[in-house]
Amino acid sequence: MDATLIRIQPSAPEPIYRQIADQVRRLVASGQLQAGDGLPSVRDIAAHHAVNPMTVSKAYSQLETEGVLERLRGKGMVVAANAVRPKPLAERLQQLEPALREVAQRAEELELPPERVLARLRQLMEK
């Protein structure tokens, strides 16, 4: 994995460390990251995204505490062996629920027709 796989939105209301942690969790849940896969160093992510290294370190530490990542001497942070198990569809959808609720609320506020919003979502997902 390289630092470009992580997307950070500095203007988002969610703290950057949480954005990083949530994205790593999703990559593990979807199977894009497998047990033993290495993560970019704190320094690499911080430099690529122009964020404080302590922010990245906080995300990694949280994931390590949760058992998603483990620190291997000489290799850095890797996906923990016990963290990688295929997640049921319902569990993966649950991770998406807050974002879907936010989109639904904004679409309603903008008085957008649901079929147009869904069509656009489909376009984005098919990229």
Task: Give the arrangement of secondary structure elements.
Layout: H1 16-30, H2 42-49, H3 53-66, E1 69-72, E2 76-79, H4 89-109, H5 114-125
Helix pairs in contact: 1-3, 2-3
Keywords: DNA-binding, Transcription, Transcription regulation
GO molecular function, one term: DNA-binding transcription factor activity
Pfam families: GntR (PF00392)
In the CATH hierarchy, the architecture of the largest domain is Orthogonal Bundle
Give the integer mean of the pLDDT values. Answer: 91
* Tally of strands: 2
Helix amount: 55-70%
Shape: globular
Look up the CATH topology of the largest domain: Arc Repressor Mutant, subunit A
Beta-strand level of the residues, as a percent range? 5-15%
CATH class of the largest domain: Mainly Alpha
Series of secondary-structure elements, N-terminal to C-terminal? HHHEEHH
Task: Explain briefly what this protein structure is.
InterPro entries: Tscrpt_reg_HTH_GntR (IPR000524), WH-like_DNA-bd_sf (IPR036388), WH_DNA-bd_sf (IPR036390). By secondary structure, this protein is mostly helical. 55% of the residues lie in helices and 6% in strands.
Task: Tell me about this structure.
Strands 1-2 form a two-stranded antiparallel sheet. The longest helix is centred in the C-terminal third of the chain and has 21 residues, at 89-109. It is 55% helix and 6% strand. α1 (16-30) crosses α3 and α2 packs across α3. The protein has helices at 16-30, 42-49, 53-66, 89-109, 114-125; strands at 69-72, 76-79. The protein folds into two domains: 3-83, Orthogonal Bundle (Arc Repressor Mutant, subunit A); 89-125, no CATH class. The chain has 127 residues and is mostly helical. Pfam families: GntR.
